[in-house]
Structure formats: structure tokens, C-alpha cells
Amino acid sequence: MANIKYYTEDHIPLEMHKVRIIQKLHLLPIEDRLKSLNDSGYNTFLLKNRDVFLDMLTDSGVNAMSDRQQAAMLVADDSYAGSETFYRLEQKLTEIFKTKLFLPVHQGRAAENIINRTLIKPGDTVLMNYHFTTSKSHVTVNGGLVEELISDAGIEEESELLFKGDMDIGKLNEAISRLGADKIPYVRIEVGTNLIGGQPVSIQNMREVSAICKQHNIISLLDASLLADNLHFIKQREEEFKTKSIPEITEAIAELFDLIYFSARKLGYGRGGGIITNSQQLFDQMKELVPLYEGFMTYGGMSVREMEALTIGLDETMDEDMINQGPEFIAFMAEELLKRKIPIITPPGGLGCHLNAMKFLDHVPRGEYRAGALAASLYLASGVRGMERGTVSEDRNPDGSDHLANMELLRLALPRRVFTMSQVKYAVDRIAWLYDNRHLVGGLRFVEEPKVLRFFLGRLEAVSDWPQKLLEKFRADFGDSL
Ligand SMILES: *Cc1c(COP(=O)(O)O)cnc(C)c1O
Fold this sequence. Notes:
Layout: H1 30-39, E1 54-55, H2 67-74, H3 84-97, E2 101-105, H4 108-119, E3 125-128, H5 133-141, E4 145-148, H6 169-179, E5 186-190, H7 203-216, E6 219-223, H8 227-237, H9 246-254, E7 259-263, E8 273-277, H10 280-287, H11 289-293, H12 304-317, H13 320-323, H14 325-339, E9 352-356, H15 357-360, H16 370-382, E10 384-385, E11 387-389, E12 409-413, H17 421-436, E13 444-448, H18 454-457, E14 459-462, H19 466-478
Bound molecules: pyridoxal-5'-phosphate (PLP).
């Protein structure tokens, strides 16, 4: 708890900002929520935002901007080629990461497209601490395979481990000697490891991975999309860095990798993305793909306004008072849920609070998508929209069977600087009600199922009339209340 300024008596972390622009929210009655759940195929991605009360789907592109970011957007330099705005962003990235070369892209997966088209040959295997949905798909569509080298302890749902995102060094050495370094185009470390609950990676671990990559001449790659929360956790949890500043910690990380990419929809309270490196060779290999897929070299699919906002947002990412907010809010929400004995991923990470659907709905058969059913039932009970991060988020195995995920999570993202504490507490209250009535929740099955990234557009239905039963219980308990 080193670097938060103050907690209230009931342990609420103090925000170091005030809210100056607001957006009105709507809370539909539960009958209307059931209708919109049916209309959206029990997939929270397909809900209309106007039917959602608290949107905890993601932190992607929905972090609140600051007054300085909004002001910077007004001085954006509109030009197709050679925009001043681009050079300001490039300069900021160099200042923060000490990298000289920058390829702009429209979002994180666009960086993945360019990197994997450039580096993957059919038959290659990419080693990762853990996959992210789009990061894996871009490897596989280019003919590569993915191996995840997270330590077994990293995917235990409840743990005391401080750096659950660390790569298992023993597994890394084993994989390299088994596959051969020439079959491994790069080793990818994802900080703030998304799909296991926004869990951090230690610098100690990144140093070991980087040294092994150097020894075998394998490219080391950092997915820095969720770097901000990871910086906070390093400062809090890694002894060597307790007295270091956030910019110093950032530098210590950046120097370990040959290639870094990020989604600015997460990093920098912005929109857009980029690839940065000091390797002229890698830069030259990739650069032609930017005008082909993204846009000219000085915008890469981003609007100049987005780039100005990102430049300021990256600066704010170096400010402890700012990056504390996300993880501290999450820790508070997690603490409240734990008090009520609700199963969540511990220790809480960044990005959001992660309900453990494997346990929450342990009576629902694995093949009926526990995390999906939890996402649907929580929306019904509260108007809160979370994101399924379990088996629905895994595409099927080549033989057509479901690829059962290691973890069945409902992610409740807390986009940075967006929600108030009463809203967080409302979500906790309704989750607690749902937990008390969890035996009423049943499973889901697919009715329309895309082959790739099925979680985005797939449609499901309830296996029984459980949603109606849950609605009736809600009415019995809450009367006319919304
Ligand atoms: C979101 C995310 C991406 C992809 O970024 P988009 O901007 O959504 O395309 C890649 N890696 C991680 C860790 C992410 O969280």
C-alpha cells in the first residue's frame, strides 16, 4: 500500500482527480433487460450500450480522458503526411521507452497482424507467458502454433503469489531445447496478463526471459498494452523497485525487449496503438505493411486527435497518482466481494475484478459455459455488463470439440477514472444477490457460432427457462425496484 495517499475509514482509496464531464446512465427494469438479453443472443458483446447500466465489458478505448488530453486534441495537426502531431507522439515514446523507431497502427491487433505476418513461418511456435485472444489468432492464421509457459501456480484461481503472470523459466528452457531456437520466431511476454485476471509479471522474470532469448538469438517481444497496472504492481511488490520512479521502472522493462507493441486503447488512456523498437532491421522488415494495412507512416490509422490525446495520456501513465487509480479501485471491489465470500481471482490484478465462474456456478456443466452464463445472469440481475473470459472465448479444437479454458472468468473491467464508488458498491450488492441465488442460474448453448474469435459475434440461448425463474425471484425480493 506504499503509494496511495489516503484511504477512508471503510478503506476506499482516495481519487486524485475530479470529474468535470458526465454522461447520463439508464437502468432498465429487469423485464426489459431480459428482452435485450434474448435479443443479443446471451452474448454481452451484442448488447446495445443504451441497455447497459454499468459497462464493465472492457477497459479498451473507454478510459476517461483528462482535461489536458481534451485540450491537446484541439491543437492536433491535421495532415496526411508529416503531421507535427505524429512527431510529438514519436518523441514522447522515445522519451519514455528510450526506443528510436515507431510504427503507428490503429489498435493492438493491427500491431499483431504486422508482427506476425513478418515473423511467422508455417510450422513455427511462438512461446508466451499466456495468450491473448487476438495475439493467438494472429499467430495461428499465419500458420504458427502457440505454447503457453505460465507457471502452474499462475493459473491457480486463489493464490498469494504476487507475480502470477511470470513465465516459467524451466518450461522456457525445455521448450527451446525441444523445438530448436530456429523454430521459435519470438518469445512474447504480456504484462498485466489479461486472460488470467490482469496479473503482473516481475522485472526479475523479464530479465531472465530476456537473457535466455539473447543466448539463443530469439527475438524477445513485449505486449505492453496493460503496462500501466503492471508498473504499479512492480513498484508495490518488487523489493528492488520500491524506491524507483515509474519512469525508471518503465525504462528498466523496455531495455529488456527487442520489440514492444501496445494497444493505446488501454495504454495511455487513448485510442490507437504502435510498435516500437531500436532494431533498424526489424523496423525495415515491418514498415511496408503500415501503409498497406493501416495508413501512411505518420498516422497508421489513428486520427491526429487520438494521437495528441495519447501523447498526453502516456505522460499521465508515468504519474503514480494516476496509475494507482485502476488497481486500487479493483482491490477495493475485490475486498468487498471477498468479505461476502464470493469466489474471485486472487490476488486481484489490474484491468478489472474477475469473478471465478468455475466455482460461482459449479453446478452448471462445463460444456454449458459457466462464465457465459454468469455474464448473462449478472446483466439480468443488475444491468452490469461484464465480459466472458472462459470457454466461449476459446475457439474449438481442430476436431470440433470445445477447447475447455483453464479458467472460467467473468471479467468486470473498471475502466480508469470512469466509475464512482457508489456504482462499484451497487455492482457488489447485485453480485452478492446473484451469488445467494446462484442455484437458479443454468447453462447456455450456441445457436450461431463463428469459427474464429467466436465470442465476439456468436449467439447463444439458455438451456432452460432459468432466466425467467431468476427474474421472478428478483421481483419477489426487490418488489418494484429496478
Ligand atoms: C486488448 C489487448 C490487445 C489487442 O488490442 P486491441 O486494441 O483491442 O486490438 C492485445 N494484447 C493485450 C494484452 C490486450 O489487452
